Amino acid sequence: MNLGPLILLAALLTTTLQTPPTPSPEHKHWAEVTHKFETDPLDEDAAHDAALVVSDIAISNDFHVVMCRELYADFDESDYHYHAPIRLLYMLGAATYQVESGKTDNEGTNLYALHSVLKGYAAILRAKPDAHDKKLDELGKLDAKNKLADYITKKNCK
User: Fold this and answer.
1) Which of 8, 99, 109, 121 is the most exposed place for a label (fewest CB within 10 A)?
2) pTM score of the predicted model
3) Tens digits of per-residue pLDDT, 34-80?
């Protein structure tokens, strides 16, 4: 059994009391990688860079990401063929919100992370038009109706 994803999740989710992150050049680089990955999550180089950034975030002593376990689990446990880049987009989106805004609020973080996921999903669909996922399509519909915040609340993200 590969415990890597579980260890990474534990490292990213352990801190409950958050302090605003200090944007450093490294943190800004994380955001740049996120935006690049959102545009082409199927690109091997972008995926490699994204995975390295998630690893950097996981071991960072000065940066702790606020994420929703329930949302993360949805992406981690998905049987969608491209669930790995979607999961990375969720984690990177959460970190990027905190880097770019300096805020660590759950709703803002998770809303931004879901938008990151949806941007990446749209890019996947442009490259692979048949690569639809029911859950991600539903999230897209909720976003079009400005209902993602309600979805986050229903997920009991704290």
Assistant:
1) 8
2) 0.85
3) 999 999 999 999 999 999 999 999 998 888 888 899 999 999 899 99
In one letter, which amino acid is 32? Answer: E
Q: How far apart are CA 91 and CA 88, in angstroms?
A: 5
The type of residue at 126 is R
| Token code pair at residue 114 | 């879901």
Report which of 103, 97, 95, 109 is spatially closest to residue 60, judged by C-alpha positions.
95
Instruction: Provide the CA 128 distance to its chain's centre, in angstroms.
Output: 21
Residue with tokens 């970190």: 95
Helix or strand or coil: residue 23?
coil
Q: Token pair of 9, please?
A: 């999740």
Following DSSP, what letter does each residue of 75-137 receive, concatenated?
HHS---TTHHHHHHHHHHHHHHHHHHH----HHHHHHHHHHHHHHHHHHHHHH-TT---HHHH
Is residue 66 exposed (0-12), middle (13-18) or buried (19+ Cβ within 10 Å)? buried
**Type of residue at 70:** E
